Amino acid sequence: MSASSAPVSPAPPSPTSSAKYSPATPTKIRMFDRHPAVGGRMATVTIAGETFEAGASILHPKNYHALNFTHMLNLKVNGPSASESSISLGIWDGRKFLFKTIDSDSKNQLVQYLISLANSIRMLFRYGISLLKMNNFIEVTVDNFLKYYESKESRPIFSNVEDMLKWSDLYNLTTKTLEEELIGLKFSPLLIQELITVITRINYGQSVRISGLAGAVSLAGSGGDLWSVEGGNWQMAAGLINQSDVALHLQEEISSITNAGGFYELNSTNGNSYTCQIAVVATPLDELAIQFTPEISVPERKLQHTHATFIRGVLNPAYFGLNAVSDIPELVGTIESSELPFTCISVLKKHDANDFTYKLFSRQSLTDVLLDQIFSIRNETMRINWGAYPHYHAPEEFAPFILDDMHLYYVNAFENAASTMETSAVAAENMARLILSRLAGQQPLGSYGLKSSTSDSNLQHPEL
């Protein structure tokens, strides 16, 4: 798709029942979660009685699957408020702020508009026309991603990640780093080193040397009109499970999966054993010790750990070389430097002039000694270590969707392209269609659509 084209975005697919992809024959679906609650990396924390997102926290306005989930489940959506859309930003290099936006406590809409206009001009002056190139780069990527919402009649079923990405013209972005891609597009080095680096460090905890598609998705997640589910995004997962005919096994981890010839035997850490016709792994395998018999082969992949630290207190302005707390931007982003102990600090809520709730992201756990330097007051501290997303590197190598010659599947193979709530939903929707097409004896479309038949007539077990 050319950069100058302006395609009309498709309307969001209409919400459907949870039985949309279910076959006509009765099935039983078991879902296992080693945690006490569903949601995985969609989770919340409670600080001083208030709830905040702790993991996957924001959604793009064109994340149509997530939007449809909220409509179908009657969930309330938190959109950006006027104050959130004009949040102040500072880019910190460990000694000084390289760039700070203008801020004001005024609630007057005209004042806020003028401040926003002034900040846009200041950013344009600093980064030049590359800002416009960045917006165009994001739009082209999003437009390509929108192909995954086309009707099922015109959209193939994909048996591997590579074909899925090639069909939407996104694959090439996984073969090079974001930095290489942007240099090739003649982006300003200053924009790459500062603003874009800040964004990739916030969203993926990594530098602009991540692969290009993950970087583009990261940039798309920095725009306006972002939203979340009131009370926590995890409610989408909980609601979908509740509306489906699923037997949910919480705090039960699968320790082994054995292909027993025509069916799978699953053994759990609770000492239970289950048999099923189809087994779908819907969690990153990278740090799990599931024993597969026979062994499976997936590319080695490391997860990027993000340490999320939540603090009720007050930042120390002296740490930033400032005189007052009010001088500290509401979002402090950082450039890529081994000397910087955190990737970002953001204000989640201002309770009063001397009482805030903050969220810090870092690659390592932040010690109490360091936190007492960064904060002048620290009333409550909570730490979470997330195996948050893949550690991206280009060219990316993808695990297969189909892990054996039968019906062992791996949804999270798509995460090496980009890891978000919506990309997981897109991969899962394709997975549902893939399973049903193979059960029906049809080989899914791959390498641009060559279809052949395959036989699954020996499948006798009705459970999923």
UniProtKB/TrEMBL annotation:
Pfam families assigned to the protein according to its UniProt record, in alphabetical order: NAD_binding_8, Prenylcys_lyase
GO biological process: prenylated protein catabolic process; prenylcysteine catabolic process
Superkingdom, taxonomy of origin: Eukaryota
Molecular function, one GO term: prenylcysteine oxidase activity
UniProt entry keywords in alphabetical sequence: FAD, Flavoprotein, Glycoprotein, Oxidoreductase, Signal
Annotated Prenylcysteine lyase domain residues: 116-442
Renumbered residue ranges of the record's region Disordered: 1-25
Cofactor(s) essential for the protein: FAD
Compositionally biased residues, Low complexity: 16-25
Protein family per UniProt: Belongs to the prenylcysteine oxidase family.
Name of this chain's protein: Prenylcysteine lyase domain-containing protein
Lineage: Eukaryota, Viridiplantae, Streptophyta, Embryophyta, Tracheophyta
